[in-house]
Amino acid sequence: MRLWLVRHGETTWNLMGRYQGRKDSMLSGRGMAQAHALAERLAHEPPAVIVASPLLRTRATADVVAQRLDLRTEVDERLIEISHGAWEGHTRSEVEERWPEMLAQWKRAPHDVRFPEGETLGDVLERWRDFLAHPPTTASPLLVVTHDVIVRLALLAVQGKGPEAYHEVVVENAAISEIAMVGGRLSIVRVNDAAHLDGLRADIASQAS
C-alpha cells in the first residue's frame, strides 16, 4: 500500500502568521492555485481513493483534486489538525506576548507541550497510529490530505523518531510525501516533493507553526 501525504494549500491565516489548529480558514489565492497544480500532477498517476481531514482547508484542497480526477473525497476525523487550544486565531507575536514561556518550550521541547485547552503531539501521534492500524480502505495509492503536524509525525515515526524531533521536518503546503507499507513494514519513498509547485511555493518560514 502506498500513502501519499499532502498538507493542505496555503490559507489566509498562513499568510497572516496565525495559529489555525481546529479553527477554519479559507485557502488563499495561491493556496487554490496550489490545489489545482497538485490535481494536474496527480492526473498523470491518480490515487485510488482520497481521504481528508474534516477541516475546510483540507477538504477544499482535496475537493479540487477529486473534481479533476472524477473521484470523491472521504473524510476521516483522525486526520484533523492538532488542537492549539487558546493559541488558535492568535499570531506568533501575540502568542509570544501572552505565553512566552510555553512558546519557548514549544521551540525547545515540543513533545513536552500541551496547548492550553488543547492537545499534545503525543495525542496527534496516537490518532495517526490508529489511522495506520485501521485505514479507511486498503485501496492504493491512498491520497491523504491533512495537516502539517500529521505529516511531520508520520514521517518521523517511519524513521523511528518521536515528537521530540518535530522541528527537524519541513512540510510545505500542497507538497507530497510518500510512505510505502509492504508486509507490515513502513518506508519513506519521498519527502516534501514540490516539483508541481513551480512559482507557487509558500513562504512557510513566516507561518505560525
CATH architecture: 3-Layer(aba) Sandwich
Structure classification: alpha/beta
User: Cα distance, first to last residue?
Assistant: 30 Å
The radius of gyration computed from the alpha-carbon positions, rounded to a whole number of angstroms, is: 16 Å
CATH homologous superfamily label:
Phosphoglycerate mutase-like
Q: In percent terms, what proportion of residues is strand?
A: 15-25%
Low-pLDDT segments = none
The count of strands amounts to 6
Q: Tally the helices: what do you get?
A: 7
Kindly report the spatial arrangement of strands forming the biggest sheet: 3-2-4-1-5-6
Number of discrete domains: 1
Describe the largest sheet: 6 strands, mixed
What is the CATH domain class?
A: Alpha Beta
What does this structure look like?
The protein has helices at residues 12-16, 29-42, 56-69, 92-98, 100-108, 121-133, 148-158, and strands at 2-7, 49-52, 73-75, 142-146, 176-182, 185-193. By secondary structure, the protein is an alpha/beta fold. It has one domain (2-206): Rossmann fold. β2, α3 (56-69) and β3 (73-75) form a beta-alpha-beta unit. α2 runs parallel beside α3 (56-69), α4 packs across α5 (100-108) and α6 packs across α7. The protein is globular.
